[in-house]
Amino acid sequence: MSGWLITGADGMLGREVVAALRRTGAPVLPLARPDLDLTDAAAVHRTLRRARPAVVVNCAAWTDVDGAESAERAALAVNGDAVRTLARACAGVRSRMLHLSTDYVFAGDADTPYPEDAPAAPRSAYGRGKLAGERAVLEELPRLGTVVRTAWLYAGHGRNFVTTMAERAAAGAEVRVVDDQYGQPTWARDVAGRLLALGGLPAERAAGVFHATAAGRTTWFGLAREVFRLTGADPALVRPISTAQLGRPAPRPAFGVLGHGRWAAAGLAPPRPWADGLAEALSATTRPCPPLPSPSPPDAPDAPDVSGFSTGTYDSKGVA
């Protein structure tokens, strides 16, 4: 048993994880949605039995937060039921599993960072589905499963909040952005590094829940202004609005700031400040991930079109 298997490998985070593993020379099998339908239990178990990876990183998810409000059963099938299927398949071949989750499992009404063991109280259909996935991993893989919560994720490539703001900045366009939601803008490449670090730990030290967000906090408005500043545009072009003015169907956490206590306990360095990651992501030396070749494993059926079944789905977040 060796190597890594990455689901959702064509999404924003999945691409960064695959690229990071290839830089180390580690064997990696990247699987995108057409390669493996995670809602097909037989296909999932067959793939795991044949690949027998040492570590599985589940980056696949329904990420359409607003769409989940009107299609909760479909979102739960991907974010909850399919995760349990994958966890059981991992248990069957003794593979470790690193599963990505979100700050949406919390109510978002705190005023201090949520520790890893804080009680979950999701307020959205998306959050309820992600919590079901977390519980599936921890129940099916109590010694081999790791839940990694992240939030406000962006990359230097693809369609996400930061690249959208950079486009608006380059155009000298005014933009209205929410200023009453607090969180931690987190570069996907930093999360990929965290996942590799966890995969390199003994299983007993990595089991449980970790928070892989950047340090510090800001609002979407504060993040947008920093993107404008770093790209040489006028931050005054960014105007604040409220969540109520944005008018999205799904409730957003007003406070999604996560604590990072487990990293020190595991002997790993804490995350760096969000502004440091953003500056590097926007720097001229940053290179985007290359196009992802994603070979299908033998006999793996094509997956149906499942809305949002990739971490690459773009959510406009706090932009009006």
TrEMBL record:
Organism: Streptomyces kasugaensis
NCBIfam families: rmlD
Composition bias, Pro residues: 288-301
Protein name per the record: dTDP-4-dehydrorhamnose reductase
PANTHER family named among the record's database cross-references: DTDP-4-DEHYDRORHAMNOSE REDUCTASE (PTHR10491), METHIONINE ADENOSYLTRANSFERASE 2 SUBUNIT BETA (PTHR10491:SF4)
SUPFAM superfamilies: NAD(P)-binding Rossmann-fold domains (SSF51735)
Signal peptide location: none
Gene Ontology CC terms: cytosol
Enzyme class: oxidoreductase
Pathway membership, UniProt: Carbohydrate biosynthesis; dTDP-L-rhamnose biosynthesis
GO biological process: dTDP-rhamnose biosynthetic process
